[in-house]
Amino acid sequence: MPVDVMCGMKVKEDTKFVSEFQGKKFYFCCESCKKEFDKNPLKNSR
Ligand SMILES: [Zn+2]
C-alpha cells in the first residue's frame, strides 16, 4: 500500500490524488497533501 509522503498516511492506489514526478507515482490522502507536494516535488519526494 502506498504511503502519502506528506503526512505518512497509507493511501489506496485508486485515489484520485496522484502526482507523477520523475517517472514515479505519489499518492495522497487528500487534495491539500497533493497540492503541498506539487509545490516542491523535488524536496518532498525524498
Ligand atoms: Zn496526506
What does this structure look like?
The chain is α+β, with helices and mostly antiparallel strands and 46 residues long. The chain has one domain. 28% of the residues lie in helices and 17% in strands. The protein has helices at 31-39, 41-44, and strands at residues 18-21, 24-27. The protein has a two-stranded antiparallel sheet. β1 (18-21) and β2 form a beta hairpin. It is globular and about 20 Å long. The mean pLDDT is 96. Residues 4, 6-7, 9, 28-30, 33 line the site of zinc ion.
What is the helix fraction of residues, given as a range? 25-40%
The amount of beta strand, in percent, is 15-25%
How many whole angstroms does the radius of gyration measure? 9 Å
Order of helices and strands: EEHH
Shape: globular
Walk me through the topology:
Blueprint: E1 18-21, E2 24-27, H1 31-39, H2 41-44
Antiparallel strand pairs: 1-2
Bound molecules: zinc ion.
Q: What key attributes describe this structure?
A:
46 residues; alpha+beta; 2 helices; 17% strand; globular; binds zinc ion
In summary, what is this structure?
This protein has one domain. 28% of the residues lie in helices and 17% in strands. The protein contains 2 helices and 2 strands.
